[in-house]
Write a structure and sequence with these properties.
By secondary structure, the chain is an alpha/beta fold. It has 5 helices and 9 strands. The strands form 2 sheets. A 7-stranded mixed beta sheet has the order 5-6-4-3-7-8-9, sandwiched between helices. Strands 1-2 form a two-stranded antiparallel sheet. The longest helix has 13 residues. The termini are far apart.
């Protein structure tokens, strides 16, 4: 991409995020407040504005966006397109043929495994890991570890929303983290 996308002003960004992220208490279990990006996804203008803003936060020379299943796919692919970068999916266990690289990790309400196809990233590839939400950091840390196994150059990790109170950044030491919409509590 030749032209860098422009960032939204803080007022417009706040308006879009407040009106396009739905909240569901006690899902998927009691005590968890689920942030649903479906309202953002169904509004083409809002989604385009957020993707362009998000792209403005990332390094101009990124070669690959790695998106974590499933919402990291939905947001990471258009973000990669906006940046003129390639997109690589990080999948849930059992979704890839052959001998994918995998890493298991703990979540705030269970455990999971993330996989990437063998040969998914070339060594030295300038890469950013993307997902919709940074909560406790387990999914991001596992995905980052896989990216590093490929010998890719990790430029950072970026999220649509960060739940700051859950401390996910502590799981990502020495990683440049960017966030579109931090939520303090």
């Amino acid at each position: 991409m030749t032209d860098r996308p422009a960032a939204l002003d803080e007022t417009r960004l706040a308006e879009l995020m407040r009106t396009h992220i739905a909240e569901y208490p006690d899902f998927p279990q009691p005590g968890v407040l689920f942030r649903d990006i479906t309202p953002l996804l169904r509004d083409a203008d809002a989604l385009h504005a957020i993707i362009r803003h998000w792209a403005s936060l990332l390094p101009a020379d990124v070669e690959y966006i790695v998106g974590t299943e499933a919402r990291g796919f939905v947001l990471g692919a258009p973000l990669a397109y906006e940046l003129g970068a390639g997109f690589v999916p990080a999948r849930k266990a059992g979704k890839l043929p052959g001998n994918p690289r995998r890493l298991s990790y703990d979540l705030e309400y269970g455990s999971a495994t993330v996989e990437m196809a063998e040969g998914a990233l070339p060594a030295g590839a300038r890469t950013v890991v993307v997902d919709d939400l940074l909560a406790t950091g387990g999914t991001a840390a596992a995905t980052i570890a896989l990216v590093r196994e490929f010998g890719a150059e990790l430029l950072g990790a970026s999220f649509l929303i960060e739940l700051e109170a859950l401390g996910g950044r502590r799981q990502l030491p020495e990683v440049n983290v960017t966030v579109v919409w931090p939520i303090p509590d």
